[in-house]
Prior knowledge:
Layout: E1 2-7, H1 12-19, E2 26-33, H2 37-47, E3 51-54, H3 60-66, E4 73-76, H4 78-85, E5 91-94, H5 102-109, E6 114-117, H6 120-137, E7 140-143, H7 146-155, E8 163-170, H8 180-183, H9 188-192, H10 201-209, H11 211-224, E9 231-235, E10 241-247, E11 252-256, H12 262-270, H13 284-287, H14 302-312, H15 316-332, H16 340-353, H17 365-386
Parallel strand pairs: 1-2, 1-5, 2-3, 3-4, 5-6, 6-7, 8-9
Antiparallel strand pairs: 8-10, 10-11
The chain binds nicotinamide-adenine-dinucleotide (NAD) and magnesium ion.
Amino acid sequence: MRRISVFGATGSIGQNTLDLLNPGEIEIIALSGGRQVDLLAADARRFGAQVAVTCYPDCYDALKQALAGSGIEAAAGPDAVVEAADRPADWVMSAIVGAAGLVPGLRALRHGGTLALANKESLVTAGELLMSEAQRHGATILPVDSEHSAVFQTLTGEDRAAVERVIITASGGPFRDWPLERLAGATPQQAVAHPNWSMGQRISIDSASMFNKALELIEAREFFGFPSERIEVIVHPQSIIHAMVGFSDGGIIAHLGPADMRHAIGYALNWPGRAHVPVERLDLARLANLSFQAPDETRFPALRLAREVMAARGLSGAVFNAAKEVALDHFIGRQIGFLDMAAVVEETMVRVSGDLCRKDAALDLEDILNADHLARQKAEEVARLRSR
Length: 388
Ligand code: NAD
Ligand code: MG
């Protein structure tokens, strides 16, 4: 039986993943979550998991109690999440939110199986390291982000040398047509209301600010290895086309699908084959129109910052992601405004750039975690200066 672990099992991607799994057909090694211990314990029982882990030490007692009599191990804390990733598994879903997903993902690669990667932050933070670790251990990383799954599917069987451009789509989020003045007053509640996708709180707000698309540009560069100038973003409000690849003969192949992450998760689960996935089928006549518009980098500066990160490479992805995570916390806490998020990230990138180690050798995990830490400290300072 295929051995499966799901990190971030209680989240939006995690729950969609479990929805596609049948307890009788697979063996669940580890499930991880956060404060929703009852949900975590119920899923661990349903699948007969070996271990259930919460990343919060203060949730240990509640989890242990919820698992009482089941024979399932309970564990807590960041180290316990990593320890769970050390348990051999054939297919691992990486769906923790934020850079916290990096180390568990890296450790899971050591088993040489498949890492289904929803956690885009780990590719942005440590793309080269993840890809080289995968190669070293003979592991496969499959993209779960819908746009990247779409590019991956579109490239299958194609000549990569003939690829001229990779185009990922953006819905534009709830503020797509808002003028700059109105954006300044946007609240977390307004930002979380995504028009097409149902997702976790953090990625929903990142979609509204286009930081999600900025992360995805970098993710695409790291995953597929095409030069950054060949990777484009187009706003496509209907979220039906997830990505397109343009070839040297002028043809463009597009990937269409419903706005339901179970398609991309199911693809990663069944790869290299395909199997039935219970998502709604597209009714093209009812959709009628697919429209496109260029992204506006004045209202959504995150995209411009992503271009800077892609040009600078090195540790800049780690800095960008960490500063974004801190800025997002301050926006959710209502200490800073919506537009301040990009300002905090930009200012942090400038302030940190002089302090980062520069070396020609490949970056190791310590360099990356140091850059992440330093960027979080600076971003806290910058955000506090901007707080109202
Ligand atoms: P979510 O907030 O719904 O769930 C996050 C999960 O991570 C939860 O299980 C939570 O308990 C766990 N978690 C949070 N902080 C943690 C920490 N510090 N250590 C360990 N575990 C922690 O998030 P989501 O929307 O499911 O997104 C998960 C990942 O997938 C993110 O990287 C996101 O960018 C990516 N993604 C999500 C979607 C989507 O549709 N939701 C689409 C594409 C990519
Ligand atoms: Mg996406």
